[in-house]
Design a protein that fits this description.
single chain; 245 residues; alpha+beta; 2,3-Dihydroxybiphenyl 1,2-Dioxygenase, domain 1; Alpha-Beta Plaits; 2 domains; four-stranded antiparallel beta sheet; 13 strands; 27% helix; elongated
């Protein structure tokens, strides 16, 4: 079962800036500057940062030495916010500091085996369905949206498409597949509207993903949430307070 979360609460799909750091010549010096000073300073300095983390790469599935030592991630509310932060004076200062360190201008001990910056944004999802039109209309009706052929991906004419904020959910008719889990973070007013639509259609919903608490809402993260199956068994979740809020 796959789990995909689309956040509708912040006005768009969150965008992530990912930096891959190669193996440093001096890990202790790297940790002292990158982990303890550079990343905290960057996340506090750049405008509108939603979150930041520095991950350690411990190994590979095949047992080979990992190519990267650390992976840093910084997130913004959407792609526009990310690009604005990079273009700001604070963002330019952070990138300049990154380049100085990467080229040993500040201290040779901080040098890594190279680094790469990437920006990531979820663009479209492909969801299998036994009847793509039926499944697309089911989701669109709950969300108050339209079914179109306007996909962010290629070959849009082959899909039944529901656009949710900056991404498209592309339903494709496939005979055999495993059920998916799609979670939508919504505000309280939208949640009430979705619940009314579920009740009006006489659909069964539950407070838990295994549907052991039918007809109930959960209060996860001090909010409200529910799960409902679509015609193909995909588990649709609607919640007002995502864990990342």
């Amino acid at each position: 079962m796959s789990h995909t979360t689309a956040n509708m609460k912040r006005g768009g799909i969150m965008a992530t800036l990912t930096i891959l750091y190669g193996q440093p010549e001096d890990p202790a010096a790297f940790e002292d500057y990158y982990a303890n000073r550079h990343l905290p300073w960057a996340s506090e300095t750049m405008p509108d940062v939603q979150g930041a983390q520095l991950l350690r790469v411990l190994g590979t599935a095949g047992g080979e030495p990992p190519l990267y030592y650390r992976i840093a991630e910084m997130t913004w509310a959407d792609q526009d916010a990310l690009q604005a932060a990079l273009a700001s004076e604070e963002g330019k200062a952070v990138l300049a500091d990154h380049e100085q360190l990467r080229h040993r201008r500040r201290c040779p001990a901080h040098r890594t085996g190279g680094s790469a910056l990437m920006t990531l944004r979820l663009e479209h999802l492909l969801i299998p369905a036994r009847d793509q039109e039926r499944s697309a209309h089911f989701l669109a009706d709950l969300l108050g949206l339209q079914v179109t052929r306007d996909s962010s991906g290629s070959s849009a004419a082959h899909f039944a498409v529901v656009r949710v904020e900056d991404i498209t959910i592309d339903f494709a008719t496939i005979e055999q597949f495993d059920p998916h889990h799609l979670a939508f973070a919504v505000d309280d007013e939208t949640f009430d509207t979705i619940l009314d639509r579920i009740s009006a259609a006489d659909l069964q919903y539950s407070a838990d993903p295994t549907h052991q608490r039918p007809g109930e809402l959960n209060d996860n993260n001090s909010g409200r949430g529910l799960y409902v199956h679509d015609p193909d068994g995909h588990n649709l979740e609607f919640l007002t307070r995502p864990i990342t809020a």
